[in-house]
Input
Amino acid sequence: MSAGPFDLAGKVAVVTGANTGIGQAIAVALAEAGADIVVAGRTAPTETEARICKTGRRFLAVDADLGALSAIPAVVAGTVAHFGRLDILVNNAGIIRRAEALDFSEADWDAVMNVNLKSVFFLCQAAARQMLAQGEGGKIVNIASLLSFQGGIRVASYTAAKSGLAGLTRLLANEWAGRAVNVNAIAPGYIATNNTAALQADATRNRQILERIPAGRWGTPQDIGGAAVFLSSRAADYLHGAVIPVDGGWLAR
Output
């Protein structure tokens, strides 16, 4: 019986920032689809490892501070040394800083841009070099944001980085589509995670958010995991440069 189009058996996936929330859900979903998983980030992904091991897939954690480019070679080299290949990269790691634009500091600008855009580009570059060397192409999935489409408030560097990431996704698709490396992005909407707990607990703000979402509920990390499996699979072989909102219809309203 031939494998289905969403089967990731035999693939090796790197997911950054997967110790909790959306990144964890993506890593687990990829493992459930058959991929072996490498998690790269600053925090030990103990819970993520336990969940992936329950799927029967292999797991590797790579300690990496993605605010510095010096961490990137170790992510790719460690993956290849352990598993022999790299087929899928999911750039999920990100940080946010909040302040009025009139008061926004250079330090907060640089910190966010370094993690959310600069390191993403150079990790894409390093991963694509490995994928091309293997001769079988690969899949790159960037985690964008609703602020890749909208402006937001009090998050100048985050909005700039996520808007830049949408453009970078299209640029890389233009360059690599003909070489069997698919580059696409997911733009999550309002997802119920620890990062949004304060918004969910604010009765007024929570009501305002739900009134704007046609689906009538907050998203779950698992909603993003399904989209990541699709973009990482053969089912998405002819999809290049897309930024797919997974937002319950937020942008449609």
Remarks:
- The CA atoms of residues 95 and 231 lie 23 Å apart.
- Strands lie at 12-16, 36-41, 59-63, 88-91, 138-143, 181-188, 243-246.
